[in-house]
């Protein structure tokens, strides 16, 4: 797909708190967002709790094996029910006043109220959140009117059809707390223009004349030919599938493993990156080999952080407003900016 715009977003989009608030409402409040993997919710009572677009939510594995998701707020006095992160919850009890809910979100007990007083447990139940699973990955959507997950994935489902994602097993997570806007990082991921300048080893592996970023439905896929064939048993950094999925995921698939990233805005000028690494047990990698492959990815990712931070500071100054995009190497950036504009609308 070709983008409608050929210039970048104005700098205001990276620094204005009002625009950021609109992004949280119209993008992160309406799209299917990855929150974890089914291996984190394998047994009844296991949960993962997180914050999305300023709203605390949790996903819980029910006794019937199904998943439920709720806003992480008690119906009594708005206390947070579960601490952020992963855990086991046999009894879903509010830590503030002891209200108890079942795993379907219905209120079961409210201590201190007259025992003979009847109440409607469903009417006082937890606020639900939509949750769906795709190939082991767990997604939630804060918009009860949104379409189904498969539609929200766009071309990601077709692009990964030949990859046995279910066979891979979790290895480790790498997290980063960073001082720039979520779009500053996304722009950088989608930009092939900078590779020779910031990633010399990666550029040495690639025939940059063949590099393209091809846009589809809600995805952008990186394509490049290698300069030379990798030695037997080895995989070059260029070999595999590398894509971005709207609004905040990247996926890198290579021989015997893959990583999936969540780009999580924390404020107009802060974000959290979570990289989860998975490997195919049939590949026979040792733990040290898995660590080495994960470290190679992290090295490339970390090479971008200083320039992203510098870009954010310059965007905040107000001298720069916008710039032209390279018609061959920044098509992914143009497509991303088009999606942002369409989702948020005109600037306030």
TrEMBL record:
> InterPro entries, per this entry?
ARHD_Rieske_2Fe_2S (IPR015881), Rieske_2Fe-2S (IPR017941), Rieske_2Fe-2S_sf (IPR036922), Ring_hydroxy_dOase_asu_C_dom (IPR015879), Rng_hydr_dOase-A (IPR001663)
Task: Quote any Pfam family the record assigns.
Answer: Ring_hydroxyl_A
Q: Which SUPFAM superfamilies did the record assign? A: Bet v1-like (SSF55961), ISP domain (SSF50022)
Domain Rieske residues, every copy: 32-140
Question: What keywords are annotated for this sequence in UniProt?
Answer: 2Fe-2S, Iron, Iron-sulfur, Metal-binding, NAD, Oxidoreductase
| CDD domains from the UniProt entry | Rieske_RO_Alpha_N
The protein's GO terms of the molecular function aspect are: 2 iron, 2 sulfur cluster binding; iron ion binding; oxidoreductase activity
Necessary cofactors? Fe cation
PANTHER family the UniProt entry points to: CHOLINE MONOOXYGENASE, CHLOROPLASTIC
State the protein's name. Ring-hydroxylating oxygenase subunit alpha
Q: What is the lineage of its organism?
A: Bacteria, Pseudomonadati, Pseudomonadota, Alphaproteobacteria, Rhodospirillales
